[in-house]
């Protein structure tokens, strides 16, 4: 079901699409492919919206920290917004201090996507299409992007990303949902139990650019191989936690890059019993513990979002890969198709 959500300054209409299947309810905007709300039941059947967001398009435009949005052309940071490709230098807009973050000042999160609903057997969903022209936000090549959101008969939310280009370029697409399984606006997620299937993570420099050498999580606050409360080690005086005011790091998933989605992470809110498990084809997972939420935004339910009121688990290739030859490649050439899949499964 499609309804009018709002209007951009230039008069472009923004629509909201509502999907429900297998007990999961999803509201998606064509602006940014934003998941505006995602509702799932708790152990007593009570629904809550477990994803941070806003009620109006004006709020999204004014200053959303990527709530629920599709991220592109490049998820996370590119150092100094610079890379060299086939001998040519490219400069991206800098929107994160000295660096380029999440595709630049006008990333895919701020574009209006073309949306086509579908039904496929027990599944329902939306195809989202976007053309990003050659040179947009500094990236070479016209990129044709197709993202499919599927709500399966079992209530899973599956994302399939596809892209092709007419010139060599770098691509790293992801989804930036801020999760709070107790319900958005209910406070901190520090009691949520998180498990990440990764023995290594990527330490960063003070600008949050990976230094390049993966480090073992063993014996550090970054160890989530066994589920533990998010808040347990967040105040340990570890240099890496100081840089990012919490965790804001790419985990190197033990499974690596896989042809099919494999387990990456699990999250559980003990108070409601709600669970989320994530499987992906991607080799990386950015765990961001909501460090930069600072109490200045009022969310969907009318409550203020403060530091640590949600977390992001962004499946991706590694940050700054265009400048880090030892990382899995994010290069896409004409004739190739970029394809990744991430599945979110819910339970209680
Ligand atoms: C980044 C954070 C950033 C956040 C919101 C995350 O993916 O890693 O550093 O603050 O997105 O912009």
SSE layout and pairings?
Blueprint lengths: L1 E6 L5 E9 L2 E6 L5 E7 L5 E3 L7 H7 L5 E3 L5 E2 L3 E4 L2 E4 L8 E2 L12 E7 L2 E10 L10 E9 L5 E9 L3 E2 L3 E3 L16 E4 L3 E2 L13 E2 L11 E2 L9 H6 L3 E5 L9 E7 L6 E6 L3 E5 L8 E2 L5 E2 L6 E5 L14 E2 L5 E10 L1
Antiparallel strand pairs: 1-2, 2-3, 3-4, 4-5, 6-16, 7-10, 8-9, 11-12, 12-13, 13-14, 14-29, 15-28, 17-20, 17-22, 18-19, 18-21, 21-24, 22-23, 23-29, 24-27, 25-26
The protein binds beta-D-glucopyranose.
Description:
It is a single chain. With 348 residues, this protein is mostly beta strands. 4% of the residues lie in helices and 40% in strands. It has two helices and 29 strands. The strands form eight sheets. The protein has a nine-stranded antiparallel β-sheet, with no helix packed on it. Strands 1-2-3-4-5 form a five-stranded antiparallel β-sheet, with no helix packed on it. Strand 2 (13-21) and strand 3 (24-29) form a beta hairpin. The radius of gyration is 19 Å and the shape is globular. The chain starts with a strand and ends with a strand. 46% of the residues are buried. The structure holds beta-D-glucopyranose (BGC). Beta-D-glucopyranose binds next to strand 24 and strand 27. Residues 65-66, 76, 208, 248, 286, 288, 292, 312, 314 line the site of beta-D-glucopyranose.
